[in-house]
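Re: that chain you flagged

S.,

Sorry for the slow reply, it's been a week of failed gels. I finally had a moment to sit down with the sequence you sent. For the record, here it is as I used it:
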Amino acid sequence: MTPGSAIMPLCVAVPLGGAFLTALLGRQIPRLPDLLGALATLGALLLSVWSVHVVNVYGTVVYALGGWQPPIGIAMVLDGLTAFMLVTVNLIAFLVAVFSIDYMERFTDKWLFYTLFLLMVAGINGVVVTGDLFNLFVFLEVASVASYALVAFGTEKQELEAAFKYAVMGTVASLFVLLGIVLLYSHTSTLNMADMARELAHKGGGNVTLLVSVLFLMGFGLKAAVVPFHAWLPDAHPSAPAPISAMLSGVLIKALGVYALCRVFYNVIGITPEISSILMFLGVLSMIVGVFLAIGQWDLKRLLAYSSISQIGYVILGIGLGTPLGIAGGLFHLFNHSVFKSLLFLDSGAVEYSTGTRDLKKMGGLAKKMPVTGATTLVGAISIAGIPPFSGFWSKLIIIVAAVEAGRHWYAFWAVLASVVTLAYVMKVMRYAFMGTLNDTWRHVKEVPFFMKVSMVSLALLCVAGGLLLLPGLQETFLTLASGVLSEGTQYAAIVLSEVQ
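Prediction finished late last night. Pasting the C-alpha cells below so you have them in one place:
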C-alpha cells in the first residue's frame, strides 16, 4: 500500500464519525457539537493538505477498500484533481464550522445542524475521492439529502418551500445520473471509472455514449445550477442559514456538479468537440443570464445566489475550452469563487444576524456600526468583480486569455462584459448596505461575535492572497497538477490501473 493512501477513506470517515458522535452525544452536552464540528472539519482539512504532498511525492495513489483490488473491488483514487478539490472543500467547511459556533446560537437543535452539516461534508469528500461511478452516485445522494434538510432548517414557510423545490429538482438530477450509470454499466460491464474508460476506448461508445452524455449533462448540470438547469438555486440559497448558503454555493454545486462533470467527461467518456462546444455555450449563457438577474435583486442573499449562477459560468467556460490554459483558469476560478462567494454569503449572514433583514432598501451606513463586516464584504465584492490584484482578477484573466488564444473571441467578450456588470451589482450592495448615512433603525446595531469575524477575516485574507497560487512552486504543486489530470483525458485509465498492478 502506497504511503498516504489511507488519507482517502479518512477524509470520509472523520466527518462521518463527527456526525455520528454529534447525533449520539450532542443533545446531552451543549458545547460538544461546536467542538466536534470544528475538530472534524479541521481534521479533514489537515488530511487534505497532506494529500497534496502525497500526490507531489508519489503521483496518483489508489486505495482498495477491503483489500479487493479494482476493477473487482471498490477503489478510491487520489490524484492532483482529487487533492485540489479536497483542499477547496475542507478549507471552506472548516471556516463555515467556525462561523456557525456563534451564528447557530439563534437556532434550536444545534446538534442536529452539525450532524447534517458533517454528513454533507462526508458525502462531498466521498464524491471527490471515489474511483467508482456507482459510489460517486451514493456519496452524491448522501450530500444532497443532507443539504435538502439543511435548506429547510429554519422550518419557516419560505424555507420549506425552497427545500421542497430543491429536493424535487435534485431528485430529477439524480435520476438522470443513475440512468446514465446504468447504461454505461450495461455497455462496459464495470463500474470502476478507470476500467470503464478503458472499455469505452476499446469498444467505442456509439449511440450509448451520446445518450449517456446528454443524461450526465442534464443531471450534473442541475447539480451545478448551470442555466437552463438553475431554477432551484435562487430559492434554496437565500432560504438556508448563512453557513449552509456558503457551503451550497462555495463547494456543493462545484463538487456534485462541476467536479463530477469534469471527471466523467474528461477522464471516463472522453471530451469531444461537440461536448466542449456545449459546455462553452452553457458557461457563457449562465454567465450572462446570472449576472443580469443578479443586478435587479434587492434581497441580498438572492442577489448572491444569482451571482453564483453567473460565476459558475466562468468555471464551465474555462473547462469547456479544453486547452491546458483554459482548464487551469476554470479550476483556479473554482477555488477563488469558493473563497469569495463563501465570504459574501457569510457577510450577508452577519448583516442579517445583526439587523434581522436582507432587504438592501432598508439598510444604509452599516459600515459605521459593523466595520469588520463592511471591510470583508468590500474585499469579497472587489474580488468577485475581478479587480486587480485580488484573486478573482487572475482567474478571470486566465480564462479570457485562454478564450482569445483558442480563437473564441466572442466568448472572451461576454466574459469581460459579465465582469463589468458584476462590478455594478456588488457596488450596489456596498452603496445601499454599508455606505451613506446610517439609518436610525440601526443605531443600536453591533458587530457580530468573535468566531463569525474570525471566519470572515480569514476568507478575506485568502481573497487578497489568492493570486499567490500562481507563483512558481505553488502553481506546480497545486493548480498545475489538478489541471493536468483533466488535460491527460482518458489516460486516467492507464495511470490508475497501472497503480493497481
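What I noticed first: Residues 157-188 form the longest helix (32 residues).

Talk soon,
D.
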